[in-house]
């Protein structure tokens, strides 16, 4: 029972890190688009 609970927590941590990575990728994509837009608008 305890071992299974530990695995569950570990799984949740992995999911959280995956979510953070995807969010970071989206933010980086938006930032790069903003940079291009700023260069074009000059």
What structural class do you assign from the helix and strand content? mainly alpha
Tell me the β content: under 5%
User: Which spans of ≥5 residues are poorly predicted at pLDDT below 50?
Assistant: none
Principal-axes geometry comes out as: rod-shaped
Query: What is the strand tally?
Result: 0
What is the CA-based Rg, rounded? 18 Å
Helix content: over 70%
Total domains, how many?
1
Average pLDDT: 79
How many alpha or pi helices?
1
Quick one: biggest sheet? none
Q: What is the helix/strand order?
A: H
Report a brief summary of the structure.
The chain contains one helix and no strands. It is mostly helical.
Q: Which structural traits does this protein have?
A:
single chain; 42 residues; mainly alpha; 1 helix; 95% helix; rod-shaped
Description:
By secondary structure, the protein is mostly helical. It has one domain (1-42). The protein is 95% helix and 0% strand. The longest helix is centred in the middle third of the chain and has 40 residues, at 2-41. The model has no long low-confidence stretch (mean pLDDT 79).
Chain-wise SSE layout:
Layout: H1 2-41
């Amino acid at each position: 029972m305890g071992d299974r609970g530990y695995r569950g927590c570990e799984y949740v941590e992995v999911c959280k890190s995956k979510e953070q990575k995807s969010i970071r990728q989206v933010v980086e994509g938006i930032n790069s688009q903003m940079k291009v837009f700023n260069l074009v608008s000059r």
